[in-house]
Amino acid sequence: MENLQIHIGGRMHVRPEKIKLLEADINYTTIFFQDGTKAVVSTTMGTIESRLPKEDFVRINRRTVVNRSAVSHYFIRPNYDEVKLQDASFLKVSRRRRMQMRSLLVTQK
User: Fold this and answer.
1) Is 97 left (phi over 0), alpha (psi -120 to 50) or beta?
2) By three-state DSSP, how is residue 47 classified?
3) CA separation, residue 5 to residues 1, 8, 9, 96 (Å)
4) Which domains does the chain have, with CATH numbers?
5) pTM for the whole thing?
6) Which of 22, 41, 73, 100 suits a disulfide with 84, CB 3.0-4.6 Å?
7) Ranges for the HTH LytTR-type domain (predicted)?
8) Mean pLDDT, to the nearest integer, of 55-80?
9) Radius of gyration over alpha carbons of the chain, in Å?
10) To which H or E segment does residue 29 belong?
């Protein structure tokens, strides 16, 4: 399905590949797009995450869901792991999701 669009809140529908990451803030979600823009919607991140393709998006910590195509590097640090996005920003991976992320991002990238 090439023209698959998901409902992200209000009257907004977007194609999943245009989303770079989702960031939770209580009952609001900030959606960062690949083109550098962002939108704040009053839909919870869990609801939006359930609408996204599971093979393309991964939750790296309690607050953040990342599009796997936006990840450029995965770093294993002594005390924590982190991902580097294509825009050169870094995001920490939670301790509990570390092993899952290593198997998903390190072996398949």
Assistant:
1) alpha
2) helix
3) 9, 9, 12, 31
4) 6-108 (2.40.50.1020)
5) 0.87
6) 73
7) 4-107
8) 92
9) 14
10) strand 28-33
